[in-house]
Amino acid sequence: MKAPIFSPNRTAPIGTGPFVFKEWVRGSHILYEHNPNYWDQPKPYIDRLVVKIIPDAATRTIALETGALDLGSDTPIPMSEIERIKKNPKLGIETGQVFNELITV
């Protein structure tokens, strides 16, 4: 048996959830599409999910403010920006046990 690190599923995952893996561009994004075989149809109610990889905090902040991103988790913006972002009526901030900060548009 091969070690998990050598598994082809490491870079081309499989699954049976509401989305199926479509594309992974390292350092850019991961694309998931609606799983037509998902057991709880018509869910999910969206056709695709794009997870953008944005390592720079300032770039993430701008993307959230301009609407280029709909959601960010695990403190997606610098803590020094939280109070300013809270004043933006188009954005919401939620905190909890799962995520440090959750920013939604």
Describe the structure.
The protein has two helices and six strands, in the order E-E-E-H-E-H-E-E. The termini are far apart. It is of the alpha+beta class. It is extended. A three-stranded antiparallel β-sheet has the order 1-2-3, with no helix packed on it. A three-stranded antiparallel β-sheet has the order 4-6-5. A hairpin with a 7-residue loop joins strand 5 and strand 6.
Instruction: Report the C-alpha radius of gyration, rounded.
Output: 17 Å
What is the helix content? Answer: 10-25%
Number of strands: 6
Strand content: 15-25%
**Can you write the helix and strand succession as a string?**
EEEHEHEE
For the terminal residues, how far apart are their CA atoms?
Answer: 45 Å
Please work out how many helical segments DSSP would assign: 2
The biggest sheet amounts to:
3 strands, antiparallel
Structural class: alpha+beta
Which residues form runs of ≥5 with pLDDT under 50?
none
Q: Tell me, what's the shape?
A: extended
- Mean pLDDT, to the nearest integer, reads 82
Which strand order does the major sheet show?
Answer: 1-2-3
